[in-house]
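QA checklist item 7 of 12: single-chain prediction sanity check.
[x] sequence parsed
[x] length recorded as 71
[x] structure emitted
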Amino acid sequence: ELKRPHEAEQLAKDSKERFFNEASFMKLLEIYFDVKNKIEFDRTLEELRKADIVLSSRGLETMRFWIARSM
């Protein structure tokens, strides 16, 4: 469980804006899942789905899992 979820979220958002990579998206998804913020989780997942980012096999598997669960 996150001790300071708002700080963690802001750091992850800053990372996503700066690096726009798989790791930063996955960190945001992890945070939103931990704090049970379904709206932001779904928004971030959709943004990742549409992003021009090459995912690792693990990242792709994770994204597919969450997309299947959200339908």
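[x] summary fact logged: The helical segments are 5-19, 22-34, 38-50, 57-70.
[ ] second reviewer sign-off
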